[in-house]
Amino acid sequence: MGEAPADDAATDTPVTDTTATGTTLADAALTDDAFLGGRLRLLQPQRGHRAGHDALLLAASAPEASRAVDLGAGVGAAGLAFAARVPAATLTLVEIDPVLAALAARNAARQTPDLGDRVGVVCANVMTLGRSSGPDVPTAGAADLVLMNPPFNDPARHRASPHAGRALAHAIADADVETWLRAAERLLAPGGRLALIHRPEAIEALLAGLKGRFGAVTIRPVHPSPEAPANRLLIGAIKGRRTPPALLPALVLAGSDGRPSAAAEQVLRAGGAIGPG
How many CB atoms lie within 10 A of CB 155? Predict the structure, then answer.
């Protein structure tokens, strides 16, 4: 853990709070963590939901785009990793928790180079996005790309965390992911792309939610080791397409010896993209 810079207490990155008055955590309650081999540094709460490999895998799986939205952004890990890789992209981070939304804005402004001039943060519920009663930003039908890391511990299978922030970030029923997919559909322009990460157990609900809204669905299993079952799915889709789905080659994060695979190093340390095939 590193020390946050002394001048990091304020940021000019705008935060639009549409749910509640913003609150902050004292720096003593935060950790300053390095990602992507130190190219991305994130302030995040010591307790509760914390960014990890999922966010970096999602960012690496997303195709380049000029106008992107990250739903369920947390402290900004996936969206900021994407923005660091795609310097032409403008990005809106959407997070329901005002504490995490404020940290996401702070994190955008503390990167080198500063990402604050092309990253905005909106504190809102995804159900309100792209509706007349919802926030003005992100605008309906304007995004080229939506990244999505929805809560994916179905309470029917997983015991909810007693920590309120962790439970909010991790737990919704599989069937409720359709709410997030509808929001993505509203925000995307025709032909816009969706990138999401989820658990394999939710594949039936995911495909049902994508049907009729998205096509050209790609599914890439992620395995922690060669012998282990997949524990994540990276899913891509295109709004309005009717092309059948395709199963892509798996991504294996570590070898039988426990050492990170070359593919994992390229994504998780070098910040590279996961290729289309």
Answer: 14
